[in-house]
Amino acid sequence: MRLSYPTNVKIVRVPCSGRVNTIHLLKTIEEGADGVYVAGCLEGDCHFMEGNLRAKVRVEHARELIAQMGINPDRIRMYNMAASDGPRFAQVATEMTEHIRQLGPSPLYTGSGPEWPKQQDPKEQIEDNNPKPKAAAG
After folding, report:
1. How far apart are CA 85 and CA 65, in angstroms?
2. Which of 5, 36, 40, 120 has the greatest number of C-beta atoms within 10 Å?
3. Closest listed residue to residue 38, CA positions, set 1, 86, 75
């Protein structure tokens, strides 16, 4: 079965998602990827006992770290799927690619400054600081 997924998705095969460390995720972003995701076994169905649970914790840690750096944590995600579910893999690759396109290029390379947390539009900030008086009920 030939499956098609976006050509910009680069696959790095590991024996278990539990072998993916936080540093691997951070280095991937640092070296130019606009986003990265980990595809692990279904929860409770890991071939290496708890590898996918360790990967989940590491992905969450990497998300927290990039958020502290001003990068949207949605640039790193984890998906769980059966190893034999090729169509699901292709679907996730397409979803993640589209999601990253919506976020745009990584601020590490655009020089656009922090993208996280979402900054409020300056006009909205002014309106929030000067609330309009409420009309009296009559």
Report:
1. 31
2. 40
3. 75
